[in-house]
Give the backbone structure.
Amino acid sequence: MKPIYEMLKAYNEANPLPFHMPGHILGRGLTDEMKAAGSLDITEVPGSDCLHQPEGVIKDALMLTAQCFGSDYTFFLVNGSTAGIHAMLQAALDPGDKIILGRDCHISALNGLAQINCEPVFVLPEIDNAYRIPSGVTAAALEPVIKANPDARGILVTRPGYYGTASNLEDIAQLAEKYRIPLLVDEAHGAHFRFHKNLPQTAMEAGADLCVQSLHKTLPALTQTALLHGRNNGIISKDRIEKTVSMVQTTSPSYILMASIDIARDIMEKQGEYLYEKLRQLIDEFERKLCRDTGIKRYKCMNEGIENDFSRIVLNFEDIGISGFMAEEILRTRYGIVAEMADLNNVVLIAVPFHTSEDFDKLLSALKNITQEFGGMREPENKSILPLWPNFLPERAIPIRKALFADRHVLPISKSAGEISGSFITPYPPGIPLICPGEKITTDMAEYISMLKECDYTIHGINNGNIEVIKL
Ligand SMILES: Cc1ncc(COP(=O)(O)O)c(C=O)c1O
């Protein structure tokens, strides 16, 4: 059953004469490539229901989605997990409140806090130091911070991370329960977890109060589609989250996006397990050949209590002496293989059930060629000389909202110690901000950033060796 999609098809097939939005009237005004999409692109008309007060096909589709994803209730998001994160924060917090936030959070969490003038109390994630890859925030790291901040009104963790690592969420949920504090989970990269037993447990299964998932990242759904899931006996009432979800969404949600959610859910419900089992077998076979025929390693986090998403393929190029950036460029420009992300040593690939064995053969053949061309030519570099990731957090000098809107000027990193940062300084890996807007730049931190630059790290927030600082 695909209630929204079926309604759209029926509406189109009835061949109506539309005198209503959108202005392209069922695709007539669109270019040829856009016409097919336009034929399903309608607005609220009799029978199409309303996302903000669902009583018909959208209500049915929401119930089917909640059942499929194992939640008590679900909301459709047509502006990605970003909107869902903002809705969760607005539901958990009032202006001026504090939240305990994993430092490995997505920027939407910090922007969401700035919108409601709330402050994060950060918790550092564990880092797999051998690879500089964050594996996630743990219960052990959270508990002392919860104890030290009894007035915090929520915990937000990001799980899984970009590299497919997932920390033990059941322990975190138990902690949240013990301290009666709502647990919000950014599960943007884990919408597929529900569909195979070898994938990490989902946030709802682990006991989160609320979670968001980007369907468009890993499931067969259009860009911007996402879900927000909740449970009836959670600390935040359904009524409250319903209001905040409505606040962050357009009053003209795209029916194409909602139908895409409907279709993706239907596919996953019927075939999810089978599709992910097939994918698991393909990836196992690929990994076996990768080990046998190339000098490239597949990264998996071995830290205790951390699970790895088998569909996230992190290729590590250290042993053949080329950077992840270079490998990404070679794969793209010579072989037409486009990765999700690269960092100094790794290339991150998102594999989905719609990849075929031919796709993996093509990838393997490219990796064999890269090994033959570069393997053993240069000594592996970088790893031994890189300093360990700092395990302290900078002091916050001004609130995040004030910092984001403050006037700023530019200084060389070498002269920035003692200043207040005006931007996020985020090296990749691990993609975690070293410094956030409004935080003080210490001498140690400025030296650390200079050292990373010397190792050719990509650092967002640093331009030509300069850093934006706030004018006081
Ligand atoms: C961890 C994480 N959370 C949230 C988001 C935002 O998701 P969306 O693009 O669906 O708004 C992203 C996007 O990359 C992300 O990586």
